[in-house]
Amino acid sequence: MNPHRIVITGLGTINPCGHGVQATWDNIINGRSGVAPIRRFPTDDLNVKIAAEVKDYDPTQYMDAKEARRRDRNCQFGVIAAREAVRHAGLVVDQSNVFDVGVFIGTAVGGLNSYYDVCSAHIQYGPRRVGPLTIPLILGDSAGGHVALELGARGPNFAPVSSCAAGTDAIGLAYHTILRGAALAMLAGGTEATISPLGMAAFDALRAMSRRNDDPAGASRPFAADRDGLVMGEGAAVLVLERLDVALARGARPLAEIVGYASTDDAFHITAPAPDGEGAMMAIKRALESAQMSPDEIDHINAHGTATQLNDPIETAAIKAALGQRAYSISVSATKSMTGHMMGATGALESIFCVLALQDGVLPPTINLHSPDPACDLDYVPNVARRQAICAAMNNSFGFGGHNSVLIFRRFE
Question: Which residues contact 282 (CB under 8 A, 6 or more apart)?
C-alpha cells in the first residue's frame, strides 16, 4: 500500500490545438484538428508539407526578446506550459519548500531547431559563427533548467529522454520521486519542437509520416484502415504533482489522483515495435499492479495511436492481451488524430486529457475514423466526443527504442 496519495493540482500546455489548457480542451472535445500546411519554412523540397504546428506563436508574447533568443523553441514551449501549470496550481516556491519542489521535463530530441541553424551557419561561414549559447540552446534538459531558474526550485531536476514516451516517463518518475520522499511537489511533463527542415526530412526518410498534403486535417487517422503514417506535432505539456496532505494544507484543489505507473522495453528494434506487443502488454499489466487495480476498474484509455501501419494493431492487441474481455468495454481515444505526434511531449498532453476526461465526463474523439482497420476492433470513440462519467483512465505511450510507458489516473475522491 502506498504510504501517500499523489494528486494533480495544476495543468499547463501550448500545442497545435491551443495556447493554454482550456482553449486546447475546447478544440479537442469538438474534434478540431491542429494539422495544417507548414508555414514556418519553405517545403518545396520536402515530400511532407503538413504538420501540427503551434499556431499564431510569438515567443515575445510570453517572454522578452532576450529570453527568447536564449531559449530554443523546445525550451520556450516547456517554460510556457510550466508557467501555466504553476499558476493553475497556485504553487509558490519559497524558503520553506525550495528543496522539496523539483522539475522533470522530458524530450525526445531537444533543441533541434537551434542545432539545425547552428550547423547551417557553421557549414556556410565556419566556426566563428558558432555562438556561446549554442550548447544550452540544444541540450535536452534546457527546459527543466530554465523552469527551475524561474521558480527557484532546487529539488530533483532532470530530463527523461525516452523518445515518444519521455513526457509520460517524466510524470511517472515524478510520481515515484514524491512517493519515496525525495520531493513534496514536482513539475512534470514534456516538450518538443522537431518541425524543422531536418526533422521533417529525417522522419519522412523512415517512411513514418503521412503524405496527405492535400488533406491536412484528415491526415492523421489512428486505427483506420486507410492510415498512412503519423503527422509531426510540437508543443509542451506540464502537470503539477503533489502529495495530497501537502496540497490540502496549502488549500490547493486536487484535479485527479495518479495511482499507477510502469515501463518496459521491447528490446526488439530501434524504431519498430515488437510485433507480439508483449512489452506493451507487460507495461499495462504492471501499471495495474502498481495501482493495485483490476482491468475491470479501467474505464478509458488515451492510446498511443500514432496512425502508423505497425503501431495501431500492435497496441490494440496489447490492450486486449493485458485487459482480456474487459478491453471491449473500455473507450479508447487517439488524440494524435488532432494534435499530431508531439514526440516527447505527447504523453504529457495526453495525461492532461485523461485528467480533464475524469473531471468533465467527456471523452475525446478519434477523428478521421470512418473505415476502421479490422485488426483494430475496440471502441475508439469515433469522430465525435462522448459524454460519459469515468472513474479511472489509462495513458499509453510507446517510443522508438522499444519504450513502453503507462500511467493510470483516478478521479479524485
Answer: 262, 264, 322, 404
Looking at 17, 164, 354, 376, which residue is catalytic? Answer: 164
Picking from 298, 293, 182, 292, the residue whose alpha carbon sits closest to that of residue 243 is 182
Residue 413, C-beta contacts closer than 8 angstroms, at least 6 positions apart: none
Residues paired with residue 362 on neighbouring β-strands, in sequence order: 387
Per the listing, cell 486536487 goes with: 254
Tens digit of each residue's pLDDT (9 = 90 or more) over 327-386: 999 999 999 999 999 999 999 999 999 999 999 999 999 999 999 999 999 999 999 999
User: Which is nearest to 69 in space by CA: 57, 79, 60?
Assistant: 60
pLDDT digits (tens, 9 = 90+) for 151-189: 999 999 999 999 999 999 999 999 999 999 999 999 999
- What's the grid cell of residue 40? 514556418
Alpha-carbon torsion, ordered 343, 348, 350, 355, to 10 deg:
180
Active-site choice (19, 341, 354, 403): 341
CB atoms < 10 A from the CB of 408, how many? 25
CA–CA distance, 17 with 67 (Å, rounded to integer): 25
Q: Is residue 93 classed as helix, strand or coil in its secondary structure?
A: coil
Phi, psi of 120 (to 5 degrees): -60, -45
Following DSSP, what letter does each residue of 150-181 receive, concatenated? HHT--S-EE----GGGHHHHHHHHHHHHHHTT
Q: Is 269 noted as a catalytic residue in this protein?
A: no
User: Of the listed 75, 304, 376, 403, which one is catalytic?
Assistant: 304
At residue 134, φ and ψ (nearest 5 deg) are -55, -50
Q: Is 304 a catalytic residue?
A: yes
Q: Is 164 a catalytic residue?
A: yes
Q: How many CA atoms lie within 13 A of 398 on its CB side?
A: 33
Q: Which residue has the cell 495518479?
A: 258
Single pTM value for the model: 0.97
